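Memo to structure team: turn this sequence into structure tokens by end of day. - J.P.
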Amino acid sequence: MTAHHFQPTILRAYDIRGIVGETLFAADARALGWHFPHFLNSQHRQPRIAVGRDGRLSSPELHAALIEGLQAAGAEVIDIGLGPTPMLYFADRFLECDGAIQVTGSHNPPDHNGFKMVAGHQSFYGEQILQLGRRAATSHGGGGSGSQTREAILEAYCNRLLEGLDLPEMSVVWDSGNGATGPVMEALASQLPGQHHLLFTEVDGRFPNHHPNPVDPETLGLLRAARAEQGAVCGIGFDGDGDRTGIIDEKGRLIAGDLLTAFLATEILARQPDQPVILDVKSSGLAMQIIEQSGGRPELWKTGHSHMKTRLADRAAPLAGEMSGHIFLADGWFGFDDGIYVGLRTLAAMKQLGMTIAQFADQLPEIMASPEYHIACSDEQKFSQMDAIARLVAETAKADEELLDIDGVRLTGPDGWFLLRASNTEPALVARAEGCTADQLASQLHRLQSILAEVGIDWQPGSR
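Reply from structure team:
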């Protein structure tokens, strides 16, 4: 195979992702397939690689080109077809594969697409992706005649989702958003106790009803309305590839990902006290407090599903969660992010704890916290800007403030905290802040604004 040069911006921290026809092409999928087997420590004569795809209009072409490249490299390809990314992760374990690749654009707009990869049952990310890009550019690769088989995995996946769960008789609305979770939810619904109402299970890569981002308030109107109409205990939504969860309670509130993690932790820690629970750096102090009061040891770590899964395994933690709705359960599950399983476990936790998610939210103190701000900054500039910001924050931090710099900068003082970090999935800096009072939150936001101004970024806290 001749040398292949990936457009640099598509080789991201957690996956390969770009705009189809602009930065991402079928040739990229073919090159990925050709070079990926080199990175696998295969116990088989041919490396066994599971491949799946989401429902985007461009996914069939990229899926076919990926398989073509894998076969040319001598791999044994097991094609599981259309389904959510967690079903691909499950297939990787269930079929005892050496690696797995999902064609997916996750929650990005319809003209985006990409690839999430697994090697040795662990995320393939960061420096590994950059190494693959360098290898492709120097025209190295395997060679041989591979094979392809189809494997229907949906029934086994659904059976495993339900294994060991004691679910309540409840009314629940599930929103697949025309994403890849639709067929799984249709297969599951009849097996669940209670009344289950399904929205938008027809897979449609145009996403005609709403953008599939389950933690964006602007996309949740239809789920809120359906929950209210059905009188359901909660509404549960997924992103386009099903690895993220958003939950609306019976008062119409979106339960933030860190607080949903804390709710699940409360049930787990009642059975397994003194365990670490991992939260990403965007998470609230309140979530950490709930985990600590429940007998756990909250820890902050780098944002990003690959970082969190790796940390979960390294710390042998039962649970990890992000503000974005990526939640990772190793208690009764495999440690990867699975939106459907998180939804089911939330229902099971309600039964075990004897409280609904709304009752849990009702008992929490009001949080003086900002939303997650996404501040436009090009992919070419965002990391250098963050380097400058990190130096500035370190120079101006006060004696009674604690600086955490594992992922951007999070500065915590007696009156609250603020965070600035470079997004690994979009051309933006991400900011959040919390204060003990409204005035203290305003002070944190003003400080963020001043820091950004120092590096030449004009930002108003009211703009997301």
